[in-house]
Write a structure and sequence with these properties.
Among the domains are: 181 residues, Transferase(Phosphotransferase), domain 1, CATH 1.10.510; 125 residues, Tumour Suppressor Smad4. Helix content is 17%, strand content 19%. The protein is built from five helices and 20 strands. About 13% of the residues have low confidence.
């Protein structure tokens, strides 16, 4: 990277990035093309000239850093991620852009809340502002922080990074997208077929042989009497019977014959009572039989080996180590100096959020999502936590200390009652009050 990019914070406009380029390095053909038709994978920007230099200011808007959105993904989401990162580098020639004029750095990749649409910082310059080594390093960081539930796909991508080629990775993940697209196209074609209405028929009209769909008009209907069929009886007129007609024969008087009544079963003879059996009173019939008496558990039957001693009851657990949901809470037993959020609210949220991140690392805070089914943040509130987004905030470790960043959460993140501007890190001070949303998830920062 030969140009310095610095962050610009504006309460009204949100987070922005700014870079200055000498006027002699500007590719004006690419600049005017972007001003006329900006592709979706380039962050919107504006520019001005200052003392022979072009200053470009890029608007982040509702996008988030991809470092905040990393985690476990489904195969379809994993394929969309790689396609959104690598496809613009292959198709950018349609806008007279160059692949190495993109800022190829994992810290400068931005995506929407769903992690689908990828946004690049593009500097319209004649000289390349990135290299092939930086592109490979960026792809390696993406594969390191983003995983997929399909182990084979992740291993194939890892092997493709050795001899890095954007098209090779796309060939691995593209069949997933094609298969899903073909299934959706099939459903759309089936849903777009108009319903076939049956032919109109007059009520109580029989189809003629010419109208019958399964019979040719030139073939006459032939009926043959089978051996088991009865012949016409004398004195009884036989109607003209078709192939599908049901014939009911009536007697001469015109009334149908009634079916015979079923015979009644014979009565069973009564069994005489035994005179030797004692009589049972009326109330004695409802008495329960007497249960056998079982000796106590402490007594052993004669001539039997002694029973082993009963095991001792388990030692009760220390309530200070476990919360109401049975999950271990390490708050009061952390080492001194461990950075953490200590709960000061009155609800049922976890008492301690311990922050364990390496240098220049990120600790993500969010809420468990049942639809995803896997953990996506380093710490997740309960699924019933109100006003906490699925991806809510992140803690970064910088040389100045620990910083808190809001990740475009719906209810916002607050420090001492002041709502944070998304994607702008704010330094955490000892004893400051931090609120995740506005429904009681209030904590105090301790180092």
């Amino acid at each position: 990277m030969i140009y310095d990019i610095h962050a610009v914070s504006d309460i009204s406009a949100g987070a922005m990035l700014a870079v200055r380029v000498p006027e002699s390095d500007i590719d004006k053909k690419a600049l005017y093309t972007l001003l006329a038709d900006l592709p979706s994978y380039v962050l919107p920007f504006r520019y001005r000239t200052i003392n022979g230099q072009y200053e470009f200011v890029y608007q982040i808007g509702n996008r988030n850093k991809m470092t905040y959105m990393s985690g476990n993904r489904s195969p379809a989401e994993y394929a969309n991620m790689w396609s959104g990162i690598l496809r613009p580098l292959l198709d950018c020639g349609d806008w007279f852009l160059k692949s190495y004029s993109f800022v190829l750095d994992y810290n400068y990749l931005f995506c929407d809340k769903n992690g689908k649409d990828i946004g690049y910082v593009y500097i319209p310059t004649i000289r390349d502002c990135s290299t092939a080594e930086e592109l490979k390093a960026m792809a390696t960081e993406v594969a390191k922080h983003n995983h997929v539930t399909n182990i084979k796909m992740e291993n194939d991508v890892a092997w493709a990074l050795h001899d890095f080629s954007p098209q090779a990775i796309l060939n691995i993940v593209t069949p997933i997208k094609r298969r899903e697209k073909s299934v959706s196209d099939t459903h759309s074609r089936i849903s777009n077929v108009p319903p076939v209405s049956p032919p109109h028929q007059a009520p109580n009209d029989w189809q003629t042989p010419q109208e019958h769909p399964m019979q040719l008009a030139d073939e006459p209907i032939q009926q043959h009497l089978q051996p088991h069929e009865s012949l016409p009886q004398p004195g009884i007129s036989q109607p003209n019977v078709g192939m599908d007609d049901i014939v009911i024969n009536f007697p001469a008087d015109g009334k149908p014959a009634k079916p015979p009544k079923p015979a009644k079963p014979p009565k069973q003879p009564k069994i005489p009572k035994d005179p030797r059996q004692p009589k049972v009173g009326f109330l004695e019939r409802f008495k329960k039989p007497q249960q056998p008496i079982i000796e106590g558990a402490g007594k052993n039957p004669p001539n039997s080996p002694p029973r082993p001693p009963m095991p001792k009851p388990p030692t009760p657990l220390d309530d200070s180590l476990y919360g109401e949901d049975g999950l271990t809470q390490l708050g009061e037993h952390l080492e001194v100096g461990t950075p953490k959020f200590r709960y000061i609210g009155s609800g049922v949220h976890p008492p301690i959020i311990a922050i364990n991140i390496p240098a220049n690392g990120i600790f993500k805070i969010g809420r468990f999502d049942v639809s995803v089914g896997v953990q996506q943040s380093d710490f997740e509130f309960d699924k019933k936590a109100k006003a906490v987004s699925r991806r809510h905030a992140a803690v970064e470790k910088s040389p100045a200390g620990y910083c808190l960043v809001d990740v475009n959460s719906a209810a916002g993140t607050y420090i001492n009652g002041q709502r944070l501007v998304p994607n702008i890190p704010v330094l955490l001070e000892q004893g400051c009050r931090v609120s995740f949303g506005n429904a009681g998830a209030d904590y105090m920062w301790e180092e």
